[in-house]
Specification:
The protein is α/β, with parallel strands linked by helices. It has one domain (about 1-200): Rossmann fold (3-Layer(aba) Sandwich). Helix content is about 25%, strand content about 30%. The chain has helices at about 10-20, 30-35, 50-60, 60-70, 80-85, 190-200, and strands spanning about 1-5, 25-30, 40-45, 75-80, 90, 105, 120-125, 125, 140-145, 150, 160-165, 165-175, 175-180. A hairpin with a 2-residue loop joins strand 12 and strand 13.
């Protein structure tokens, strides 16, 4: 069973639909026991970092998420879900993130010809042998929607980068924790391959 964390944060249905299309038993829940009992857990999300942390706290979810990670359950953050795993974001100064991974979320700088938010398809440059990308070509093409980007403290956890006026840490992996700034559930067959790889992690 793959549990998708429900905290009123947007792209839950598209993530659930993608998982079901892969034949994965899936539940969308904020119930503590269901989340702890799941074989794998996904934290999706679109929207504002500060609002999302407020909703997670209101649902009593930060401690549950930390317990899931501590137990070694494979855990995947998607888009805002990636950002929330880190310590802080320029989008919401003074609001602490979950702090499970070390790094900061920064605003994409303005640049000539760059539209912010960054919406669209970009190729990834893979590095450090990320398990989510096994079986994909060297530069898979995926779909992004974001105004803020990750700068991880440890380059060693970064498994994919992309360029959008600046070098963006697009996917990370540390132990049982995985995260993607892009939306695998909206990235066609490549994204489904990534979700299938996550579903297959022991």
């Amino acid at each position: 069973m793959i549990a998708v964390i429900d905290y009123d944060a947007g792209n839950l249905k598209s993530v659930e639909k993608a998982l079901l299309s892969l034949g994965q038993e899936t539940c969308v829940t904020r119930n503590r026991q269901e989340l702890l009992d799941a074989d794998k857990v996904i934290l999706p999300g679109v929207g504002n970092f500060g609002d999302a942390m407020e909703r997670l706290n209101a649902c009593g979810l930060p401690d549950v998420i930390r317990e899931i990670v501590k137990r070694g359950t494979p855990f995947l953050g998607i888009c805002l879900g990636l950002q929330l795993l880190f310590e802080e974001s320029q989008e919401a100064p003074g609001v602490p993130g979950l702090g499970i991974l070390k790094g900061k979320i920064l605003r994409i700088p303005e640049g000539e010809g760059l539209k912010i938010p960054h919406i669209g398809w970009n190729s990834l440059k893979l590095q450090n042998e990320g398990r989510l990308f096994e079986g994909l070509g060297k530069e898979p093409y995926v779909y992004f929607v974001h105004s803020y980007y990750l700068k991880a403290e440890d380059e060693g956890i970064v498994k994919a980068v992309t360029e959008y006026g600046i070098r963006i840490h697009a996917s990370v992996e540390q132990g049982n924790v995985f995260a993607c700034q892009f939306h695998p559930e909206k990235s066609s067959s490549t994204g489904l391959h990534i979700l299938k790889n996550f579903a297959g992690i022991e």
